[in-house]
Amino acid sequence: MGPLPAPPHVFSIDSGQLVYARFAIEEGWAPRLLERVASAIPAGILASADLGVRVLDAEGLEALVRDLVGRASGPIERASLIVPDAWLRLTFLDTEALPVAEDPRLEVLRWKMNRLLPFKVEELRIDAQEVDRLTTESAAVRTAIGFAREDLVAAIEKAFSAAKVELGLVTNRSSGLLAALAETVDEESLSVVVLVEESHYTLIAARRGQPVLYRYKALESDLSQNVVGEGVLRDLRLTRGFLAERVGDAEVEAVELVSEPAQRVRWQEWLRSGLGHDVRFHEFAGAGEDGETSALMGAMIGAVRQEIL
What is this structure's pTM? Predict the structure, then answer.
């Protein structure tokens, strides 16, 4: 991956804005925000699509990235990138032994993913990592797979390359938050992070620094809160049952909620009822400055942690 950025540089992109942040590393690896620059993404550059968005105006995106990089206080050669969970999601496959060589291994995984995903697998960029099996009864190999639209990832990479920035780590917000909160729980226990945003929520559970479960669920804005709550509770109880059955030797130590303040009471009740566990809230240093959300700031801090450690 080459030398790590020093100090770390992180970009974030979503449908509304492109953000750059530069951090200093304090004692004990704690990142401290030094600089933040942001640009709104004009209409016509991105458009809604299956699995997030697609790029309508590649030249416009390249110009936007070049402008933001030029407004930074110093040169940026290499950086991490945070994208929404709507654009980059995770799934898991339990299989028998996989080919060692990367291309045959990805070919096997793509074939198996065709039966799992409602997307055209041949149009996806995938990244696979072997993780611990959940139980001794599990298949020989368990693989965590990140997937996103190939055309979207390629267009973003091209835009940053045109600005002379090499992208290293590319991750989604929930995975960044998981990394940011890693030191708050014992690694032998299960940690659960729930990210609530306007249109969806994401639940990711991990043990020993590895994801064991990932759920992305849309939230219907035209439904009443009672109806939304019934659906959330149903999904949470299924999640609780899965964790108890498949990871029964590990206790849930913490359920961490990252959301806007107005959503916290409601989601605390749903999570406590659905998962049967107390909930902790997190605010990250720098959240609230210039309209930054706690979720995005936490994800950026997590990206820094992943690059440094």
Answer: 0.90
